[in-house]
User: What shape does this take?
Amino acid sequence: MFLLNILFILGSLPIVTFGVSAIAAYTVTLKMVEDHDESIVLAYFRAFKANLRQGLILSVAFIVLVAAVILDFILFEIVEGNPIGFLILGFISAGLVFVHFFYVWALAARYQNSLYRHLTNSRSIFIRFFGRSMLCTVFVAFQVWLFFMTDWMLLFIGVFIAPILIISTISAFAMKLFREIEADGGVIHPDDDDEEKDDESQADEH
Assistant: This one.
């Protein structure tokens, strides 16, 4: 886990490659959830290379959307009269970004699909399994609070384990949901003899 966390952080350092690194990390953790025995380093770099294009596009989209959400809250603070519309828009936008990206990295890691479909599937899964998605959100929020908002020592430790711990938590929840959807016929099964993600797999719940 420590090694994968270092790989994830290093792969995210250019910022714009955050999405590529996230998809690569999810590729590894999703396989860990299913007890697939494979070299972490090889699996990470293979997934990083395979997902470079879609990871970069998702990264840019995520950065732009997060910046837009932050701008809404900044405008609420600096515009005379603190227009409540900016505050409402900020919360709505934050919620939309959250549900569309919560599962998107795991979906991109496991299935071959269009970026639009990955995003809409993330939203659909979050809404369909709202209770479990919110429970996962609580676990993730607790980990963020524990490692980054409580103590300097935990902050130091969190740098080395928290990112991949959060990814692993979401992966554990996501894999159960993916398997349930696949069992219902909502997702085409990935080929277990090859990589979890292949050219014939797609995550289309519609």
